[in-house]
Write a structure and sequence with these properties.
By secondary structure, the chain is mainly α. It has one domain: Growth Hormone, Chain: A (Up-down Bundle). Helix content is 80%, strand content 2%. The protein contains 17 helices and three strands. α1 runs antiparallel to α6, α2 packs antiparallel against α14 and α5 runs antiparallel to α10. The longest helix has 34 residues. The radius of gyration is 21 Å and the shape is globular.
Length: 432
């Protein structure tokens, strides 16, 4: 029989959450090492912006095309089992690629396929973990936990970039891939022993009988939920415009370091580490300070800072790599200050059984135009400059902040919390 409990009654939530969190942290480190190694491998082997843009495109297609479907399934299925299956799938894909490298049979399309599989499984995993956080952490601690998550992201970027550069110099690709498999196992072990609470379905008060909904009906319900929240929908549409330039620009950063600054994997590691230090610093500040009382003001203020950081990278001279490092640091710090409060708004305002769909829809909407940006950015950057994309992205961030501050539904985004509370009746948390 399922064990019933309330989050607020859980005295040991920290031990449960951070044990799982620690395993996931190690797995993310392994994944980042592999990502660094594969991207640098493609950079050295091809020297093509189009290849790098295609790699980024392949890695994000699952989120863009299948995001709403993935989120719907996560809300329907056992989230702990989803994370277990996702980690296992990623490990198997990585092992397959390691075998190909050991045989000398690897091709670029093999790398694309593995990136796609890792991204698809990662989409299930990240949505399950994000939606589970509000079930494992008391609501009053969500913003600080998001700050800690941003610190984790920054800390891992600090470690993974230089470590990845060193590993590329001294280890074979199959050895680096093996590290990812080991760290994935360390993420799986805690999930075997620790249960994650599952939200029950909201009862449909208008129905006389309990009729089980289909996947399509659940997906439409999630879409209607997001559309009914104008401020959230507008932020998603704004993200489309911002990501159209920013994501393609940073996906081409390895080539910019190599061709424009004349650097190697070590210099690329410096830039990425600077961004990691920035993310860590922003997360630490958020964890201590907690941001403005209105979380959305914290995010919007940081969006201006993000634009400034990106503009510094864009305007750096070819013999001034240190300027790009400074810009990367500011960019990283602002990313933490944007994402932490925004995630906390969703986790504290949206019912647990709807969160995976909301996260997935926002991710899908936010990255919808990125593939178009990548397809345009790659060929154009091969003929012109990568810096132009950074320049455009910086100005767009600042412009979008001005637009957002003039829209009442965005400024008052957190008012949705009361509406969702009224809708969330008869929710029972149970361990499956």
């Amino acid at each position: 029989m399922a064990t019933q409990f309330s989050i607020k009654d859980g005295k040991n939530w920290k031990s449960r959450f951070f044990t799982i969190w620690g395993g996931q942290a190690l797995s993310i480190l392994g994944s980042q090492l592999v990502q660094f190694a594969l991207i640098w491998y493609l950079t050295i082997k091809t020297g093509s912006a189009t290849v790098l843009a295609t790699a980024s495109l392949v890695g994000m297609l699952p989120n863009v095309v299948l995001g709403p479907f993935i989120g719907t399934l996560v809300d329907r299925w056992n989230r702990r089992k989803i994370m277990l299956l996702a980690d296992t799938t990623i490990s198997l894909a990585t092992v397959s690629l390691a075998i190909l490298f050991s045989l000398g049979a690897e091709t670029i399309w093999h790398i694309y396929v593995v990136m796609f599989i890792r991204s698809l499984a990662g989409g299930f995993h990240s949505n399950a973990m994000n939606a589970s956080t509000s079930l494992l952490v008391p609501v009053e601690n969500l913003t600080r936990v998001q700050g800690i998550n941003q610190m984790l992201n920054g800390g891992l970027n600090i470690i993974s970039a230089p470590m990845g550069a060193l590993l590329v110099e001294f280890l074979s690709m199959q050895a680096i891939l093996a590290i990812d498999v080991v760290t994935a196992m360390l993420a799986i072990i805690p999930l075997i022993f620790i249960q994650i609470p599952q939200p029950s379905k909201l009862l449909d008060c208008s129905a006389e009988k309990d009729v089980k909904s289909t996947v399509w009906q659940d997906m439409k319900a999630g879409l209607k939920y997001v559309i009914s929240w104008p401020g959230l929908l507008i932020i998603g549409l704004m993200t489309i415009v911002i990501n159209f330039t920013i994501f393609p620009a940073f996906s081409l950063l390895p080539l910019m370091v190599k061709e424009f600054f004349g650097g190697n994997a070590i210099q690329l590691g410096w830039v990425q580490s600077a961004m990691g230090i920035g993310i860590f610093s922003g997360g630490a500040l958020l964890g201590i300070w907690g941001g403005f009382k209105r979380k959305i003001f914290t995010s919007l203020s940081a969006l201006v800072g993000l634009g400034i950081g990106i503009l510094i990278v864009a305007l750096a001279h070819s013999n001034a790599l240190y300027m790009a490092i400074i810009g990367a640091y500011i960019t990283g710090a602002m990313i933490s200050m944007i994402m932490g409060p925004f995630y906390a708004i969703i986790q504290s305002s949206v019912e647990p059984e709807m969160q995976a769909r909301v996260f997935a829809f926002m991710s899908s909407v936010g990255t919808a135009m990125v593939p178009v940006g990548l397809m345009i950015a790659g060929p154009i950057s091969d003929h012109f400059s990568i810096q132009s994309w950074f320049l455009m992205g910086g100005f767009i961030c600042i412009l979008m902040t001005i637009v957002a501050m003039s829209i009442p539904s965005v400024v008052n985004l957190e008012n949705k919390k009361e509406e969702t509370k009224k809708a969330a009746t008869n929710i029972v948390f149970e361990i499956n």
